[in-house]
Amino acid sequence: MTGAKRKKKSMLRSKMHTPRGEDIKQWCRRRLPILEWAPHYNLKENLLPDTVSGIMLAVQQVTQGLAFAVLSSVHPVFGLYGSLFPAIIYAIFGRGRHVATGTFALTSLISANAVERLVPQSTQNLSTQGNTSVLGLSDFEMQRIGVAAAVSFLGGVIQVAMFVLQLGSVTFLLTEPVISAMTTGAATHVVTSQVKYLLGMKMPYISGPLGFFYIYAYVFENIKSVRLEALLLSLLSIVVLVLVKELNEQFKRKIKIVLPVDLVLIIAASFACYCTNMENTYGLEVVGHIPRGIPPPRAPQMNILSAVITEAFGVALVGYAASLALAQGSAKKFKYSVDDNQEFLAHGLSNVIPSFFFCIPSAAAMGRTAGLYSTGAKTQVACLISCLFVLIVIYALGPLLYWLPMCVLASIIVVGLKGMLIQFRDLKKYWNVDKIDWGIWVSTYIFTICFAANVGLLFGVVCTIAIVIGRFPRAKTLYIKNMKEMEFKVKTETDSETLQQVKIISVNNPLVFLNAKKFHMDLMNIIQKENASNQLLDDISKCEQNTLLNSLSNGNCNEEASQSCPNEKSSLILDCSGLTFFDYSGVSMLVEVYMDCKDRSVDVLLAHCTASLIKAMQYYGNLDSDKPIFFESISAAISNIHSNKNLSKLSDHSEV
């Protein structure tokens, strides 16, 4: 007997430890999404829009790469490398079809702190005489990019470590108000950093707490040093960019290809600067020499990793938070899904691997993602095509950018941040939906501009958790309470053969960012089970949802869903009598449930809603105004379903 048991155990161990070929294939497809979508790429339908989007994206990548490299306190050419390698890595490992990874203003600002601290401008005179063999750049420039690459490397390692620890499950803490406020505050910092170029001023590097205010204080103290030529050229560039981009947005349905105003402006400004010799005549600062080619890879400076750990954590957290928000937004818009943990891996490798090629920290940018939306990109091929054009710039066209005025480049960056800056308009939405979220937005924004983006992000998360913990004790749902699900069969008078199924789910917990995602997933599982089966079950299922006592599971809906007949129509009634309070995430998820159910031909009705919930949902979402959605009681909702069914049958008979 013992021999037989040992044999069985050895067989079980061999099965457990010997991976099957199919398992390896599934793992590769899960971790290398390019293996999943590339074999099914439709050349006929997708290649043309992806090519057009790729060309437009390349223009953005080049301009932002140059500007964000300067923002990161390194030579502009390294921004071109940062626009190339991270985009390729993310296309292989990332799942966001409209996520354009590359240089990013927020991560550039953070890495600039490390660069200026470890290799300050005052050391330039000591090393400017010696040139390295790398692209003919000075030792000073190579020391600076060494620091930035070290920040990128360590930040990427932190993100990969978070992937290994499966920390993507805690991303629900990054609520929409916190991300919106943090990105808006960071965009304000970026605009402030470009003021010296817009005004043509010479300004020392200013950072640290309240550095935002010190910069403007310096500007007003030295207002006489503003170059009028740079100011006028900046204003002209901003007006042209805003005007043409608004016209492109207005007529994008009528014209197939939008005008690449950024590219036109770069060519025109560079040509005008070259012809009039603005650099020497008016003292305008230009981009300067851009060396050709890509140097051989070199490992980042490992001996300074301990000195840049603060900036590395900032790059890892801020870059991932901003990128994940864009990936989730594009997935929601175009009906596909992204894996939060896989995004950790994709962005981590997009920082680790490019750091060996002299790249600054990278992340996804809202302007580039919005550009992919507007130009009709279909897949990640658009990003790969943009990399081809960036390569052409690196190897052929780079030196022609010598004469590009920095004030024009700064204008392009400021206008490109429009998408982030107009998030100020969200304040009205938060005020009408949940005033506490409005307060979180304002306080997170203030902390961001007073300190830094990573400080603002951490403050917003801590503040959100503290407020939820403070609100829960006042809720009546501290006690475990079953969420009962009931079913009704409503036979119409005009057609007794057709059954309409009504499913009633009682929500007995607050609906906040902690449990909103799980709430949506459970309801969609119920509806999928309804549509998948052809048998009728009369069981009454039970669902228990209590997020406070089990915050990580976020309230489970364990229910044996009743199944509908093939000709059966379904309605879902949500009893909100136990929904004692909610936040912005909860309201947005309720509206999303309503829209998803509408797409699945399932009518959603809400009973026992408070006046504040009704107002918040009506303000937030595009709800169907033709049909009543909110009812005083469950019986009123059922009566409405019954009467609508009879009316629809009577109208059908009258048409016949």
Helical segment count: 28
Overall average residue pLDDT: 81
Q: Name the overall outline.
A: globular
The total of beta strands comes to 8
Sheet with the most strands, sense and barrel status: 6 strands, mixed
Characterize the structure shown:
The chain has 656 residues and is an alpha/beta fold. 59% of the residues lie in helices and 6% in strands. The protein is built from 28 helices and eight strands. The strands form two sheets. It has a six-stranded mixed beta sheet with strand order 5-3-4-6-7-8. A two-stranded antiparallel sheet has the order 1-2. It starts with a helix and ends with a helix. Residues 474-499, 534-567 and 649-656 have low confidence and may be disordered. The chain crosses the membrane at residues 145-165, 203-220, 226-245, 257-277, 304-327, 348-367, 379-397, 402-424, 444-469. Belongs to the SLC26A/SulP transporter (TC 2.A.53) family. Residues 492-641 form the STAS domain. InterPro entries: SLC26A/SulP_dom (IPR011547), SLC26A/SulP_fam (IPR001902), STAS_dom (IPR002645), STAS_dom_sf (IPR036513).
